[in-house]
Automatic annotation (TrEMBL):
<dbReference type="GO" id="GO:0004930">
    <property type="term" value="F:G protein-coupled receptor activity"/>
</dbReference>
<feature type="region of interest" description="Disordered">
    <location>
        <begin position="339"/>
        <end position="364"/>
    </location>
</feature>
<dbReference type="GO" id="GO:0007189">
    <property type="term" value="P:adenylate cyclase-activating G protein-coupled receptor signaling pathway"/>
</dbReference>
<dbReference type="GO" id="GO:0005886">
    <property type="term" value="C:plasma membrane"/>
</dbReference>
<feature type="transmembrane region" description="Helical">
    <location>
        <begin position="96"/>
        <end position="116"/>
    </location>
</feature>
<keyword id="KW-0472">Membrane</keyword>
<feature type="transmembrane region" description="Helical">
    <location>
        <begin position="20"/>
        <end position="44"/>
    </location>
</feature>
<protein>
    <recommendedName>
        <fullName>G-protein coupled receptors family 2 profile 2 domain-containing protein</fullName>
    </recommendedName>
</protein>
<feature type="transmembrane region" description="Helical">
    <location>
        <begin position="179"/>
        <end position="201"/>
    </location>
</feature>
<feature type="transmembrane region" description="Helical">
    <location>
        <begin position="241"/>
        <end position="261"/>
    </location>
</feature>
<keyword id="KW-1133">Transmembrane helix</keyword>
<feature type="transmembrane region" description="Helical">
    <location>
        <begin position="128"/>
        <end position="146"/>
    </location>
</feature>
<keyword id="KW-0812">Transmembrane</keyword>
<feature type="transmembrane region" description="Helical">
    <location>
        <begin position="56"/>
        <end position="76"/>
    </location>
</feature>
Length: 397
């Protein structure tokens, strides 16, 4: 990451850099700390614990911890950059925490198509996500650290990659950070497109199923005249699933491109100064942006709702099998308003008996694919006729 202090430290723009860093890092670190405390309490409390028992949510917590480390070390390295052993560490830990958080979000995106489309055990994969990301991040940062390529860069006056040969420093930057950061963002987009295709296939399968039922005429005529397409019908699900990949692309790809550009063209100019300020703002804003996304996580919202109304939880658990239980699909239930449901109340009764992509019949037994049971899926919930239809997606949001 391109740090602003050094040769420009005596320029009037130094105060602008410092204000940008502190103005974004302080609320970001504060929000991230508050979110971790809140998540810890909700996971500790028996009333809300079951809502947070998700692989994707735990990966999100690991990423928040990495962002907390990144926010602190990035600030110290930016505002108090001096040569020495401390400068080496202030180059190592921001880079390591940055790669670890990017890897966690990439694993969150990868987890959904693996458990949903390929029926891979998500909970068993969790340790591989964490260990693989940690090991890869250590390799990409220990190697340049041990080689003396991280530390005080006398040319730029910053704690970052250092080398007397710009071409060599470019190779270290691309090979140990920029390429992998961009690859993780591209991987998230690929996982999102996989889920998008799965949702479309799900809808087409459901339409083919209804076309062969006794309600073929009514359903077909009703579905044929729907104004919204499949994508529009599931727009809430698609927006939620695609939110993290979108943010990752905006943050990771933009910072990687700016870092490579400034490494290749290090000369001082007004354009490079503005690029450096933009780069700095994106890095400093990471904890804040991802903290806001974590605050809107559906599982966390349900957990907080359970803490606020514990009496509703006891009432929910007292209902029959049709109601959600600790082992039911609870991750991202998205209620569908009547205008978005292709079936009337009579059709909904029949839909509840249909085999959906979220339900697999194996050895004569039906098992729900959610991460609480090491799986994930899209489920048309079996509710009473007075309930609204809903779709539950175990996803990385």
């Amino acid at each position: 990451m391109s740090l602003p202090l050094g040769p420009r430290s005596s320029s009037p723009g130094t105060q602008i850099f410092e204000r940008v860093i502190l103005g974004l890092i302080i609320p970001g670190v504060t929000l991230t700390t508050a979110m971790l405390i809140l998540c810890g309490y909700a996971a500790w409390n028996p009333v809300s614990r079951r809502y947070l028992d998700r692989v994707s949510f735990r990966l999100l917590v690991y990423a928040l911890v990495a962002h907390l480390v990144f926010g602190i070390t990035f600030t110290v390295g930016s505002l108090m950059a001096y040569p020495g052993a401390r400068c080496d560490l202030l180059s190592f830990f921001p880079n390591l925490s940055l790669m670890f958080s990017a890897g966690m979000f990439s694993c969150m995106a990868l987890n959904l198509p693996l458990v949903l489309a390929h029926n891979i055990n998500g909970q068993k994969m969790e340790k591989y996500y964490v260990l693989g990301t940690t090991l890869f991040g250590l390799i990409c940062n220990v190697v340049p650290y041990a080689s003396g390529k991280l530390g005080w860069d006398a040319i730029n006056g910053s704690c970052w990659y250092r080398s007397t040969n710009p071409a060599e420093m470019m190779r270290w930057l691309v090979g140990t950070q920029s390429f992998w950061i961009m690859l993780s963002a591209v991987g998230e987009v690929g996982a999102f497109l996989t889920i998008l295709g799965y949702i479309v296939a799900y809808e087409l399968d459901m339409r083919r199923f209804h076309a062969g039922t006794q309600l073929k005429t009514n359903y077909s005529s009703e579905a044929a005249h729907r104004a919204g397409s499949t994508i529009r019908r599931f727009r809430n699900i698609i927006l939620r699933v695609g939110l993290y990949p979108l943010v990752s692309c905006l943050l990771n790809i933009s910072t990687s491109v700016i870092d490579v550009y400034q490494m290749k063209y290090p000369e001082s100019s007004a354009f490079n100064w503005r690029l450096n300020l933009t780069d700095l703002a994106i890095y400093a804003g990471r904890p804040l942006i991802y903290g806001l996304l974590a605050a809107t996580d559906p599982s966390l919202i349900r957990a907080l709702r359970a803490l606020r109304h514990p009496e509703d939880e006891s009432e929910t658990q007292s209902h029959g099998p049709g109601w959600p239980t600790p082992s039911a699909c609870l991750s991202t239930v998205i209620d569908m308003p009547p205008s978005e449901v292709d079936c009337d109340e009579t059709d909904r009764e029949e839909t509840s008996t249909a085999p959906t992509p979220g339900t697999i019949l194996e050895d004569g037994k039906e098992r729900c694919l959610d991460e609480g049971q090491d799986q994930g899926g899209i489920t048309t919930n079996t509710l009473a006729q007075t309930q609204r239809a809903s779709i539950d997606v175990v996803c990385h949001i």
